[in-house]
Amino acid sequence: MPDLPHVVILGGGFGGLWATRALATAPVRVTLVDRTNHHLFQPLLYQVAMAGLSSPDIAAPLRHILRGQRTVTVRMDEARSIDVGARRVTLAHGSLGYDYLVLATGARHAYFGNDDWARHAPGLKTLDDALHIRRRMLEAFEAAEREEDPVAQAEWLGFVIIGGGPTGVELAGTLAEIARHALPREFRHSDPRRSRIHLVEAGPRVLASMPEVLSERALCQLERLGVSVHTGQAVTAIDAHGVDLGERRIDARTVLWAAGVAASPLGAQLGAECDRAGRVKVECDLSLAGHPEVFVIGDLAAITQDGKAVPGVAPAAKQMGAHVARAIRARIAGGATTPFRYRDYGNLATIGRMAAVVDLGKLRFSGAPAWLFWLWAHVFFLIGFRNRIVVMAEWIWSYFTYQRHARIILGRGEDSPNRNQD
Amino acid sequence: MPDLPHVVILGGGFGGLWATRALATAPVRVTLVDRTNHHLFQPLLYQVAMAGLSSPDIAAPLRHILRGQRTVTVRMDEARSIDVGARRVTLAHGSLGYDYLVLATGARHAYFGNDDWARHAPGLKTLDDALHIRRRMLEAFEAAEREEDPVAQAEWLGFVIIGGGPTGVELAGTLAEIARHALPREFRHSDPRRSRIHLVEAGPRVLASMPEVLSERALCQLERLGVSVHTGQAVTAIDAHGVDLGERRIDARTVLWAAGVAASPLGAQLGAECDRAGRVKVECDLSLAGHPEVFVIGDLAAITQDGKAVPGVAPAAKQMGAHVARAIRARIAGGATTPFRYRDYGNLATIGRMAAVVDLGKLRFSGAPAWLFWLWAHVFFLIGFRNRIVVMAEWIWSYFTYQRHARIILGRGEDSPNRNQD
User: Fold this and answer.
1) What pLDDT band is residue B3 in, cutting at 50, 70 and 90?
2) N or C: which end of chain A has fewer CB within 10 A?
3) What ipTM was estimated for this complex?
């Protein structure tokens, strides 16, 4: 086995995990490196942030998923640098030589040069981010309940979500549902139903990657849930008490960031050309120009197809993972690689209870049927038999009770009364 | 309603929550203050630490539990000081005057003057503690897998649990089960079955509060699970690489503290006599000498009955909570209070899969029947219909699959490769 070619895969998200699985029967040994111990089903991360699901519902240990694939070693570690000349990756603990490298370290939310906004407007990419947002959201309702001054109370009941893409829409819709339905009977001095939830989008419409008619339907559904949508308005400042949209001010103690991503900084170390978001421009087979043994996939890869950028979504990452596994097999067998082609099966976004939009090309629909379709698709693609059953049960439960079982504040935030407690 | 006497209850554990519930029909308004937003079912906290249950499985938001009790206000806040003369509690955010005060802020683990041990040997009292221990435990197996030096690897596979009470026994037994059954197939370079799990107890036997025969049976069951038990040996030093027991050294990168508790520092502010652990010596009706309007209950109260200290266990705290509710009703009605009497229904401790001991006075048993009895008792007493079903399902699942679904590393530890990542 030590004589087999060594494939190092950095990142255990959709791209890296699908590449690893597709190499199951290839004559290689694989080392999959991730800085966490789990694969995360990111499309449902907003549900953890909004206290509807627990972390283990949408995450599974990578070594558990891959336990039967004996040629794979999972290593919890963090890549610090890549030397493509020496074919070696330096990790936080040691280093690894490779014959083939698959870089799948994804993207992180970014503040477009306004890094001081990070403190006031947390983003959502990891489970830790989700638990942080959950704490901020639940603590805002707690602070409103304690507050005697009505102006300050209204500020605590103000929420701004920045970014009208799928994550922003999901957060805004779910938050509105929590404020209207899950909490009201439980507070004595404040009324969560008086929460004001704002969704801010700099572009002309929400869900810009969808056809215009579905953006309009999403807007209607958001407004019906009680979300104030501000399109065509860019954020100019964020502080602890609210957000400035040019001349306009929105008072809100809780601001969430769903507006932009930047690629993993590892991409820049390859010496290849990157786009503005830091994504690596790859060859048509997803390899690096001049380095046929290095592949870049998922959110970190910049590739266009028919004049349009391949989107940074889970299906694209999975398809790229499977493609590089085929490319590595072809190289080992001495054959040629084929160009990657993204197959777009459709696009869907959820908004809230019985509210979603679905675009399957010829077939477009919204409302309750779209929501049921979204539910089925997401639960179906969840990894692990157990998780599927549990998540389905959670949703049936919360659909009928309006309750969100994970309303537990964990950790100690800056604004938390727990701070400095031991 | 503003004219009704105001009862302030500090702490939403078993004592405080049971007092609140028992005041449901009393002519009072109640404010329940807790620094977290949830009631925690502490007897199952070790299962969260050992990755068998998720946080929301054993915690429920206090406001959700009490939503129907309209005379109760739940306030997430932290008591900073108590002025018994002015009948006022100062909180982190504002203050509260009271007519009756129930102090139920419990205890915290303590290191008997060796505060520097806290860094190396985390204790287990809150959900945050449990997630911290979970991370340390799972990261140790990850580090062992990365380690090429066999001596260093063995150090990562060494675990010491200090304290042979119920928590220590539960942690040691469950950890042995994880190392032997849940993990082995998933590692390539290390063998979790080679873990050495040590349980250290300064006294002559484990589970000292149990009859001697049950301590012996617990010892047998622990050893059968592969735990090395060291009784009569006091810890003299703890560092990042192990533990000293006088002359003897145990190498271990993971050390857990289950050896002692100290009462909440609020007790000392009452001006009453405290015992060595900081617990407040109370009158026979649980009130404070000279202050019949102040009550101290649960782990914070020091009271003896028939020459023995009432133990710091959940049933005692619940009974005290119900008792002070009766005492407050009696005072308001102009009547006299009665002395508190603790009814001991029995004592039980779990060790691991099908291993437990039960002492019901005349009836004592161990092994599989004791484990099933323990399981039934704990699931039965869990708050909330939903939690009972979910926890039961988790256990049936993990009993047959040997899997622990919550094996997700959250947060960033000192030793974590995630540190300094954004």
Assistant:
1) confident
2) N
3) 0.90
